[in-house]
Amino acid sequence: MAATRDELFRVVRRFADAWKSDDLREELAGSLSCTEVAALTDLLRAGGEPEQARQWELAHAEADVTAGEECQFEG
Question: Looking at the domain assignment, is residue 71 inside a domain?
């Protein structure tokens, strides 16, 4: 049985709460691909955390640039 809209929102909100940690972001942002960060930040935004999503994008872009890689979140 598919989840209801309210159940989905509660799950996304719980996910966003778990992934908005500064320590987690600092540890993992550079390990994820741009595609993975995009999926994560979509969920953070859906869970009501747009600023946390932007912080993930910035941390990921910084790690990619430092490693000499191109990043879709640069700039």
Answer: no
